Amino acid sequence: MNEFSKDNLIDILEDDSKNDWLFSLADTVRKEHVGDEVHLRGLIEFSNICKCQCKYCGLRSENREIERYRISEDNIVSYAKHASEMGYRTVVLQSGEDKFFDADVMCRIISRIKDLDVALTLSIGERSFDEYKAFKASGADRYLIRIETTDKNLYEKMHPNMDFNNRIRCLEDLKTLGFEVGTGCLVGLPEQTVESLAEDILFFKEIDADMVGIGPFIPHPQTPLNSCEHGSFTLALKVMALTRILLKNINIPATTAMETLNPNGRIIALQSGANVVMPNVTTSEYREKYEIYPNKICIHEEPDKCRNCIEAKIHSIGRTISKDCGFRLKNK
Ligand code: 5AD
Ligand code: FES
User: Fold this and answer.
1) Does the predicted TM-score (pTM) go above 0.85?
2) What is the pLDDT of residues 152-164, one digit of tens each?
3) Count of H helices and E strands in the chain?
């Protein structure tokens, strides 16, 4: 019943009459395979400097209107320390594709954070096999790099000067090196088809992704896609629910982009297949500058406030906060 073909997936994505059934099936599969615990990951957006020109992203190098920043090595480590003191068991380091943070710098930061006894996830874009290998040797546990879309034509339109095959190469290298690998897609990119979303879901299964993050596209005013429609919250939720049903025991975040489109978006996602939330743990001075898309949530909040807020919301739906690092549960 849970082995959907591509045609089944397309039918479900196109038909909104059975959404309640779909979300509740995903919730059941989530409960059965990963339980009621929610894993919180403390997110540090440590640089918004980026050499890429992704058409949808506010951090693209051609956006001259945003104020760029890099957090110093010592401050990154102190945000991680504070995250661990607040109870986070995973720290996620995310940035634009910023060459300043080369393998040497990253490896120093990774080793210092690993001394804090937390799991460490990196989300810093496309690197060489050797750099990934060095990150792993320094102690990094996981790596996030969304495929964004498996439609190669659309991928290449959305990502000038980037190569779809290199993206795949990154995912393969990370798997080979023993990282837990996270990927995912945007939902609602211009010209994206429901058929390609079905292929995205099958791709997550084919590469045996350990984590999958899915979010609606939200147009940013200082990008070439500024006049496009935003993606549908419900469609993004459906792609996420189907991913849970097919991949079963993986980790799936309730993404911030979902909450940007729906004030209760993360809780709805947690009740439709998700089991992870990634609150920001930097102070507010950086949050508004990491403007991938507009109206990001919590940009004026401080780390302790977000932690308490999300804990209360999670408890209010009868779920608990995990005290362990939240690696993927294998073979269950
Ligand atoms: N809307 C929604 N999500 C976006 N991302 C980048 N730009 C946007 C946007 N305009 C997502 C990408 C990237 C992740 C860090 O943020 O999927 O992988
Ligand atoms: Fe930041 Fe609710 S998660 S205030």
Assistant:
1) yes
2) 999 999 999 999 9
3) 13, 8
